[in-house]
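@channel sequence for tomorrow's demo:
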Amino acid sequence: MDWSDSSVQKNFREEVINYIEGNLPDYYKHAKPPTGLEAGDWQNFFALGDTDQKQAATEWMNTLQKKGWVAPHWPKEYGGAGFSPIEQFILHQEMALHDAPTVGGQGVSMLGPTILIHGTDEQKKKFLQPTLSGEMLWAQGFSEPGAGSDLASLQARAEKDGDNYLINGQKLWTSRSHKSNWIFGLFRTDPEAPKHRGISFFVMDQSTPGLSVNPIIDMAWEHSTNETFYENVIVPDTQVIGPENRGWYVAMTLLDYERSNISGAIHKSKRIKELVNFLSDKTNKNFYRLDNFRQAITDRYIESEVLFNFSLRIVSLQANDIVPNYEASVSKIFDSELSQRLSNTGTKVFGLYGNLWDEKLGPMDAYFTREYAHSVVRTIFGGASEIQRNIIATRGLGLPRG
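structure tokens (generated this afternoon):
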């Protein structure tokens, strides 16, 4: 396998690097690395940021729009760049190396391609351009109190009422719904059908009467996720994406996008190198106990390189028109568990200083301390590790279902 760029890829990479370095707002160049679910989250700044954050987010979005890089995987005719999987990989790799946020959020990365495949012409006209411009900011309404990893057990109902649906129920762990104005999600439209059927895929305005958003404060005292309630929410049938009762299969199309997670591999590698640089500075020697952790830090760096190669394998499959399946599950498990190991190692290196939460007092702005608290959920959200192992066993190894 050749890990080096071809001449064409090299030229494209240089173009990406030059454009980022020449246009990335100063705010992002000097910002501290974010932690937790907010890491790299442009939508957080765009919707809820202070004046400087909103200005930087708007400026960066407008800059990327000029190149079609807001949606590099969308066709050019819809405002995207029409990039190949390898070109997308290079773009996201360089964005991560420069700590530059990708913009558009879940609307651009997941919902847009789903509408391109399953949406009507009218739905494409209504939703794609406003999503691309940031007018529509999206949240994903999938999980419920009794349906997380076993998503097909969802119970939130959508009952047909003339040309509308009447929606009732609850969604849980809804990331970004406090900084979005639209939401897409799955609701049961035929309670008598087998659980993977009888589900439809809806999009709706979050200001619709009867739809409310309540915050969930996590163990790091941050507001990253929410619970959303639906009480007789009226949604027109024109806002069902794909056929009625076939929403599960529409959602599976959505989940096929953005699986390489190259950004996660790059961010981990960068944080490890920053840790090594901090520990190499003798003026910081009072903050750490290095001798017992040299091997652990080395292991974390090697693991970040393994994760990079998992990402490269996945994008190589996509480049050959193969949809990653169990391969993505392998990468997801490794990424989640590496997040926990890295934050654990980074905290232990600093001994009692690792207990300091205050960015002004803690070493390295208390980055690893904060990430340690956030890392607990890494093996749960986005597909629990137990579910991923089942996928690897049945689809990867061909083992029978137990």
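heads up for whoever presents: The first strand starts at residue 138 and ends at 141.
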